[in-house]
Write a structure and sequence with these properties.
alpha+beta, 13% strand, 5 helices, 116 residues
Length: 116
């Protein structure tokens, strides 16, 4: 299961900045993805049985195709059930994205404004 922030439409308006803008956003996105991964692993609401669900939480940043996607994903077959079942009691992906989204968007804006 993957939960991500996509800013493709915003990137479409960055052609004036050229490839430097995309590179800068990818740097910021990669750092944010690592922070999100660490946060999710440390703040998971479940008790480990095997540790697999925690170990396979992964922060992701994909800057391909003129888009920049930052997020966190759970890579076990049952990750979707942890996230969506049990009344959300074991959810960590969506709460992590909600926690970091404002910070990431501000970092993107600051990163671009410092390029002027």
């Amino acid at each position: 299961m993957k939960i991500r922030i996509e800013i493709g439409e915003a990137l479409a308006g960055l052609s004036a900045y050229g490839s430097d803008a995309c590179s800068r956003l990818n740097e910021i996105g990669s750092a944010a993805a690592l922070e999100m991964e660490n946060f999710a692993k440390q703040n998971r609401p479940w008790t480990d049985r095997t540790g697999n669900a925690r170990r396979t939480l992964q922060g992701v940043c994909d800057g391909s195709g003129g888009n920049c996607t930052v997020g966190v994903e759970g890579n076990m077959p049952y990750s979707v059930f942890l996230e969506l079942d049990y009344g959300g009691r074991y959810a960590i992906l969506a709460p992590t994205v909600r926690h970091f989204a404002p910070e990431i968007l501000l970092a993107f804006a600051h990163g671009l404004s410092s390029m002027k």
